[in-house]
């Protein structure tokens, strides 16, 4: 009896101990492990997903869509629901949706995986009927104009983030703000929304309206393609600007790529060479030499600056003009693009002043146009220039610039001596359709006096009317411009044989500039002079631009309406 009582007490004691242990354990869990097990439970039953926002669109200045989003489908696999994994992997591989070994391995080891994203083509019926293979609604970045605006707009990557151009530079604005949502999870791992679970809506990205005009962009590309075929040139760049506002109206690199399929092209084509490729500008740089001489009143316009020999010796090096012109006045030095005259004028300007004017035009500094990868160029320091380097810099050799820099420098002359910051964005619009930013011209500095700009303008008109730029002439429109033919330099070996960059930069109407065009042709075969290669392309582009309503009114009104009014006023006065 006594032993029985003892056994009973032991059992009771053990039971009490077990219950006491569970009580303590429960208290420990409730007090100290509550958050841990709560998170673990939530992880097993609830899953947080990211809700990606609608990416902002990109428009041209007149509202034409350059970049947008289109709906696509994504094919996914839920391996737990796939019964015949080997057969399914074989079917998927046979229709080009992956490699058999990889698909089969994923079906055996994973709970979920993407088979293919952004599907545009039709999928065979037998694939659609497989249990565990499902379609999800997805979206894809789409560029309606294809390669037309690739240099400017760039493209997005697989994660829907910008990788080049405007897409990269304004990615934070275009991307918007992601949202999130907690979804209930079934024992089989499937997710479904639950009204009691929290969520936050995604906020769409902002739309960007560019200063670019796709009609001008199209004109430039079509005319450029023709010239590239006839000259067999290596590369080319064309930039069109409004010199009064600094707005970039078109920017084309050739060859280019299709941003809808960027991986089908060499990565080198993704680079915007207009801002990232450095080259020696040649005679288009003579505006720096001319500006310094005129602004400092070092020469009279009719003063003889070259005696006609067309040769000068700098140290042991003889530098000659491409052809003899006879004696040249200051005005004729630019009209006929004499290198010898440029050297003589630069000697009187002096290194320090020449450097200051070069910097004032923006050379040696990035233009800060809103595009990634811009180079600043290199003009060096005057204290380190050798006599030969200073001599060649006077006519645009021995220094490096970008196409955007030299084009923007000419806009300063067209704009009465004021240098503006080039702009690409006209306005930014939020998801409510409200403008959150509107651009306006940004003045960098005054480069020269107004009188100097007017004088240079007259001289550049002469370059087109009776100088090296005669093939840029367009009937009925007064044009100012300058040709350039630069030898290409290469590391170590120096200047290559028969390798040139032919260029022409001009603006119109010369007395009231509305359009400025810079043309750069890299390594044309056959005639390589800027006046013979680049100037005719300028003319063809100009002839087509002035036929566009938006620009013909501005250009022809300023030329003809004003002159007709002046003639009418004169008749009234005389009678």
How would you describe this protein?
By secondary structure, the protein is α+β, with helices and mostly antiparallel strands. It folds into 3 domains: 2-32; 49-207, Penicillin-binding protein 2a (Domain 2), CATH 3.90.1310.10; 214-566, DD-peptidase/beta-lactamase superfamily (Beta-lactamase, 3-Layer(aba) Sandwich). Helix content is 38%, strand content 23%. It contains 19 helices and 22 strands. Helix 3 packs antiparallel against helix 4 (100-109), helix 9 (214-231) runs antiparallel to helix 18 (530-545) and helix 11 packs across helix 14. The chain starts with a helix and ends with a helix.
Topology:
Layout: H1 2-32, H2 34-45, E1 46-51, E2 58-59, E3 65-77, H3 85-94, H4 100-109, E4 113-119, H5 125-128, E5 133-142, H6 150-153, H7 165-169, H8 171-175, E6 179-185, E7 191-193, E8 199-200, E9 207-210, H9 214-231, E10 235-242, E11 247-254, H10 273-276, H11 286-295, E12 304-306, E13 311-314, E14 317-320, E15 328-329, H12 330-335, H13 339-349, H14 351-360, H15 387-393, H16 403-414, E16 418-420, E17 425-429, E18 435-438, E19 443-446, H17 450-466, E20 480-490, E21 494-508, E22 515-522, H18 530-545, H19 549-574
Parallel strand pairs: 2-9
Antiparallel strand pairs: 1-6, 2-3, 3-4, 3-5, 6-7, 6-8, 9-17, 10-11, 10-22, 12-15, 13-14, 16-19, 17-18, 20-21, 21-22
């Amino acid at each position: 009896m006594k032993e029985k009582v003892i056994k009973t007490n032991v059992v009771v004691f053990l039971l009490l101990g077990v219950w006491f242990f569970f009580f303590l354990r429960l208290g420990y869990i409730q007090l100290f492990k509550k958050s841990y097990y709560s998170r673990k439970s939530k992880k097993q039953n609830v899953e947080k997903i990211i809700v990606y926002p609608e990416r902002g669109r990109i428009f041209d200045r007149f509202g034409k869509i350059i970049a947008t989003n289109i709906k696509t489908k994504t094919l996914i696999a839920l391996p737990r629901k796939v019964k015949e994994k080997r057969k399914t992997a074989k079917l998927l591989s046979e229709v080009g949706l992956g490699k058999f070994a990889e698909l089969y391995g994923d079906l055996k080891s994973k709970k979920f995986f993407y088979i293919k994203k952004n599907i545009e083509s039709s999928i065979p019926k037998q694939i659609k009927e497989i249990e565990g293979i499902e379609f999800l609604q997805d979206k894809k970045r789409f560029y309606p104009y294809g390669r037309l605006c690739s240099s400017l707009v760039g493209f997005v990557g697989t994660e829907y983030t910008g990788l080049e151009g405007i897409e990269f530079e304004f990615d934070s604005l275009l991307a918007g703000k992601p949202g999130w949502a907690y979804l209930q999870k079934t024992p089989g791992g499937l997710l479904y929304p639950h009204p009691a679970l929290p969520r936050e809506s995604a906020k769409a990205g902002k739309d960007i309206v560019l200063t670019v005009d796709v009609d001008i962009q199209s004109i430039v590309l079509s005319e450029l393609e023709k010239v590239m075929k006839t000259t067999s040139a290596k590369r080319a760049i064309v930039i069109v600007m409004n010199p009064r506002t600094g707005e970039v109206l078109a920017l084309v690199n050739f060859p280019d790529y299709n941003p809808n399929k960027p991986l089908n092209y060499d990565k080198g084509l993704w680079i915007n060479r207009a801002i990232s490729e450095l080259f020696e500008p040649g005679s288009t740089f003579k505006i720096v030499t001319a500006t310094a001489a005129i602004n400092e009143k070092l020469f009279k316009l009719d003063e003889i600056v070259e005696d006609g020999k067309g040769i000068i010796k700098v140290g042991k090096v003889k530098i000659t003009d491409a052809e003899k012109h006879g004696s040249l006045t200051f005005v004729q030095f630019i009209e006929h693009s004499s290198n010898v005259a440029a050297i003589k004028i630069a000697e009187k300007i002096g290194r320090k002043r020449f450097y200051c004017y070069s910097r004032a035009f923006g050379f040696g500094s990035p233009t800060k146009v809103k595009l990634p990868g811009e180079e600043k160029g290199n003009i060096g320091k005057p204290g380190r220039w050798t006599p030969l380097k200073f001599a060649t810099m006077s006519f645009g050799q021995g220094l490096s610039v970008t196409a955007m820099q030299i084009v923007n420098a000419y806009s300063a002359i067209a704009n009465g001596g004021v240098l503006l910051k080039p702009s690409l964005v006209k306005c930014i619009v939020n998801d409510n359709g409200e403008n959150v930013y509107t651009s306006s011209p940004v003045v960098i500095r005054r480069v020269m006096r107004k009188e100097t700009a007017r004088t240079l303008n007259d001289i550049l008109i002469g370059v087109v009317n009776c100088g090296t730029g005669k093939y840029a002439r367009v009937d009925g429109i007064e044009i100012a411009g300058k040709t350039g033919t630069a030898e290409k330099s290469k590391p170590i070996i120096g200047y290559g044989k028969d390798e040139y960059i032919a260029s022409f930069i001009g603006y119109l109407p010369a007395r009231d500039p509305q359009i400025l065009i810079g043309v750069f042709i890299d390594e044309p075969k056959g005639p390589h002079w800027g006046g013979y290669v680049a100037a005719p392309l300028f003319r063809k582009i100009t002839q087509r631009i002035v036929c566009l309503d938006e620009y013909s009114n501005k250009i022809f009104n300023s030329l003809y309406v004003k002159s007709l009014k002046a003639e009418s006023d004169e008749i009234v006065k005389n009678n």
